[in-house]
Amino acid sequence: MNAKEEFEQIFTTHINRTGSRELLDWLSTTDFFTAPASTKFHCACLSGLVQHSVNVYRLMREKHFEEGKDSEESFAICGLLHDVCKAQYYKTSTKNVKNEETGAWEKKPFYMVEDSFPYGHGEKSVFLIERFLRLKPSEAVAIRWHMGGFDDTARSGNFAISHAYQKYPIAVKLHLADLESTYLREKGTSSAH
After folding, report:
1. Is 104 within a domain?
2. What pTM was estimated for this model as a whole?
3. Terminus-to-terminus CA distance in the chain, angstroms?
4. What is the pLDDT of residues 102-143, one digit of tens each?
């Protein structure tokens, strides 16, 4: 089963909220299932975004799900959809790179950011998801703050992230799963097409 198929299976099994079918249909009209997850840091490859989304969900579920306390649907929504903001975000381009063996310059493909809707990161994902289905406050907060201290607002001394993590444990769980997936499990998964 490839990452898109796994994403769709997890999504349709666990997310049954009104508007979920429309959200999944909309994702299919974007490059969500073919886009990279980053320009060069992790899953910077064809379908890297959906691979990363599935990885975060799996890791979050495996390490942080507490039976009787956590919701399967909330975990699926947060894990699978936290980076919806990256759909229609990357563009393929080429750059000249010197071949060390031959000394010749060669065109190499690479991903660059072309943000057609500059609305932030986590907040953009929340906005896009809520065009189709209503998020619980805990889910919206988790998705909004999944970047943790890597978010511009968090670095500016805003204490909202601290309050978010204290009030909503799922926000901490999503952040930890995203960090571990990105920096430990997906390390070395970058490659141009």
Report:
1. no
2. 0.88
3. 20
4. 989 999 888 878 888 888 889 999 999 999 999 999 999 999
